[in-house]
Amino acid sequence: MTGGTGGTVGTGGTPRLLVLRALGLGDLLAGVPALRALRRAFPRHEIVLAAPEDLAEAAEATGAVDTLLPASAPGRAVPHTLDWSGPPPDIAVDLHGNGPPSHRLLLGLSPRRLLAFAHPETPEVEGPVWREEEHERARWCRLLTAYGIPADPYDLLLDRPPTPSPAPGAIVVHPGAGAPSRCWPVERYAAVAAELRSGEHRVVVTGGADEHEPTAHVAKLAGLSDEDVLGDGLPFPQLSALVAEATAVVSGDTGIAHLAVAHATPSVTLFGPVPPRLWGPPPLPRHQALWHPGPKGDPHGHHPDPRLLLIQPDEVLDAIARTDRPHE
Hints:
The chain is an alpha/beta fold. Helices cover 30% and strands 14% of the residues.
């Protein structure tokens, strides 16, 4: 897969298909079924994904993307511009949202065809109706199906990475998330990690580049060694290998939970503001989604969601015991 600026996109007369999904790792992985459907439907097109530059290796791992076009904006917003050059896209696909800003961004490139959900402020887009209460993977597959492109929301597994795991067989505890509303208290993560460590399990704590404080705090409270802290943002190949070879992954509703699903690794995911019916794992025994029913909250809020705080460490430990890795 190639990457870089718009000036490196496209070669010769190859038609280009542009997909906009300028979001995070979990969003990319939730979009894998749709990306693969596009790859099957347009095998001769160069598929260009407009997404954050740090997702280049994850995009390549999907097997459905040829080129990454760096694109992002603060707070999950639609980028103001795309660094696209050369002829307009043959096809543009809006996997970012339901418009109208994402529609207008793509329409500004004058694609021959735009695949997107309908929105009253962009009447020129004659797509299917957006459904608010729909699982993220199913949503984008329905969009493509409406345009005559078959898509399977369960086509989401990634190949095992060639990179060796930094902690094969460990239980991975990941206390961070994209927003405080999805962050379970570090003291509870530490209680879970300490209980697992008291048995025969190796426990490692992971975190993003800006999550050193919570990962270090969990490790200290749980009595873990420095070698068991894999924070400060593991590069994607190492993170992918760690998850693929893990005994289980324990986290909130964030990217690493989707990575566990992609590698068929047992997982326990703690949900709060958003119910698992919208972002949760497939209904398989190896994936346990914990959630206390209640009104939907703000997944990007500044305080832990009240439903998330109802989950107790004993529930998490019981859920870990219920996970079931498939026979290989």
